Amino acid sequence: MTGNNPSHSLVLCCFVMMRNESPILNPFLDQLEEFFDHCILLDHDSTDDTVDIIRQRKNNEKFSLCHLKSSGYPQAEVATYFAHSLIQNNNADYVFFLDCDEFLPFDTRADLLAQLKKHSQDTLIRFKWRNICPSQLNGDDIFSSDFYKGSNQNDFYKIAINASVSETAPKFSINQGYHSITTHNGTDPQLQEEPANHLLHIPVQSSGQIAFKLCNGHNRIAGDAVRQQKNEGWHWVTLARQLASSGGDPDVLRNLALNYPTISSDDNAVPDKLEFNFPYIKSPYSESESYIAAQAYSLIQSENDPQGVEKYSYTVTDHKGNILTTEHSGKDTEPAPIERPPQQSPPPVLFNQERFSEQFNTLIDPLFFLPTKMPPTAWGGHIPFLFVLMKILSPRTYVELGVHYGASFITACTAAKSLQIPTQLYAVDTWEGDKHAGVYEGEPIYQELKAHLEGSFDNFHLMRCLFIEARQKFKPGSIDLLHIDGLHTYDAVKNDFTTWLPAMASNGVIMFHDICVHERGFGVHQLWDELKEQFTTLEFHHSFGLGVLFLDSGDPRVKPLIDLASDPNSKRFYQDLVENIGNTIGSRVGFLTNQEDLHRLHHEVDYLRQELSEVYSSTSWRITSPVRATRRKLRGD
Amino acid sequence: MRIGVVGSFTYFENHFPERWFEDKDILALDVFEADYSWLIILHNFSPDVTLFFRPELYPRRFIESIPGIRIALLSEPVPNVVNGKLELSSETKLRMKVYQLMDWDLYHWRIFYDEGKQDSINALGYTIDEFRPLPIDTATFHPPTRSEYRYDVCFVGKATPHRIEKLDFLRSSRLSFIWVAHGASGQDLAELFRSSRIVLNVHADAKNAFEPRIYLAAACGSLVVSETLSSRPLHFAERIIEDTTQWSDSLLREYLENHQSYSPTPSFQNSLNRFSTRVLISDVLAQLNTTFN
Lengths: 637, 293
Hints:
heterodimer; A: about 625 residues; B: six-stranded parallel beta sheet; five-stranded parallel beta sheet; about 30% helix
């Protein structure tokens, strides 16, 4: 059984899921280039140079870079998806599942193929972990010196699957951790352990790297009462404490690396040197500043992760932003079923009596905020809801595509200042118009908006350029709230969505204006209908319609809105309420600003009258009276 | 309790509530005079009480939309009363024009900063509820815990012909002297005062006045030596000296010799407490018989 390919040249593919792996990534990619024909590299919101390294890699035709947006860790789901995809679309004979710290112990691809030929009848091949540890752990290139090898007692395996599995078990799924598969047809996979060769695993690459790794794991488990109760992941806490108490002793680090993830008490055993010298690796291991910063920030993030069993949403996109697969049913991604107590609380209802105060403060009170200015706009009716969204999300970054007079942008700025949120606010527009907004003289509009913003706000940035030009300025995962209101054709708004999606945080929110316009070539409604099938959404139908898309329906911040959207009566009530309040915005803001102008004009008139009165009563006026009389006569007045 | 503060940061931040920049229950707005729509932000913030510095500047409709108690702190000088009449001049008329825009009834409590101007205020017919110096951020402006002086003499204020003439003697003096014309405010200004044995007060012109820096410097424990003041200092009396003579090196040395460095006394502490901005707010609320959580 050699899978899809009848010829003798096997097609070898690999699936890799990664996050912040920049130090070891180039050596790892050297490996992939040597052994595999095609690789899926799935990045999970890396904040260091991981994505840049892949993009800048020369001869990267073998690599398909994809992006995973998820606050959880849906490894089994995405591995299953890509395993099927590689077999069906790339004619893979074998699919490997490697992490960036795992290396094959073969000199060349020919050597690997020779081993695989021995297992051509097996559905699965299991490679046993062999932990190895660099002889130097100071952050320098670990591949330029020797490695120590651990004992042969490790019980952890990684699998490679033969494409024949898709014939014997068409609905197979990969298990979390890549240790095995589930056939779902009652059969066991035919597997063979590869005894002669191990998978070389480098869990500790430097003292700094392992410290970050253990602290992250420690933070996640130590703050998670549910996992502690189930005794899950406690080894992270133990390992972290062992490391901390050792003060970074090199022998303790080496011992930890060679026995990972178990704990050994024998710190004094002298390990053997590894004979293998990684002939296919040409690039150095390198810890950059951005990697260290990203690891430090992730420590803060891991302290603030929500506790308890998480319901995960996820979305996978390709390098162009096209959605490949997504799941938003709130399904638990734990592979084994877990017993939970039955639901006790009643279905969510707006203004639940017990939570009235919280719901009022979150969902109602901000509706009555006012923006500092309301220029001409078709967006006015949505201003109240934007205040609610800003309060709920407290976004780090707000980006608006298509600004024009700035009504919604001024609202976002007002919200940030009123709520004392240090949001960075970006307005992107050329201020030249388009066929939907109309071509307009943008310079005076831009200058007026700029002057108003400079007088009242900080933290705002006007980006006078095309959307695609502005996109380069935003790192992946950096935008929490995005407002798309540019050209409204289907192709244009879809392009905006796919282009900017990778820049969104995994729990970000996207707003689309004009979802209710079905004329003049507007196609936002068409895209909105597609997106509603894939994401949790909320929509308003007044002021030409506003669609609100939640990338992570499990984000606790947006729970009030998700609950509201899930109850038809509450949703309808809230939509009507927002519309009614939105209809009054223009008159309420206009009342303030127009009255201010009137008040000022009255004072100016009073002042001028007083000045005139002083002139009339002055001596010089009386003296020159005959001169004025003569002039009037000459003019014939 | 949520507190709003409206006032030019440049001129008034030293008088804002204690720890205002780190307290989420306090929103301070700087003044942008071209367009007052930024006051709407305060409407959204929904304060329980708001302090307005230079209240005569702000348009009525915006102020009306701000909920809670509104306290006006008036700090523009008014003319003196001489022989029962207001001593008007073109300059005083110009200054008083600003008060023509004031909506007195919008504020629940109106405070005038110069306690010596009650006669003038009565003559003008302004509605003032209390005469009280501008409050001070006592978390920033307070005496040192240890006296470590870098300078013998300090002056803060822009250079004018009168000041240049008045302070010229210091150019040849052996006393250590620093003159900061611009840019010192908040913590920087307080540190400067605390590291100076004497802080001089010289009016911009030769006209008597009572500058806010007098009490700011005194609150930091400095000895304040001033030209003739428009009214007697009623607080920090032991730290403020009004000297109408010709100033000289020997005069200042005499003060340095005869006046002790700051040491805590009950009367000083009482004065400092009374100047606290948060205490002012509490006092006003007590006057209005209002409480907040």
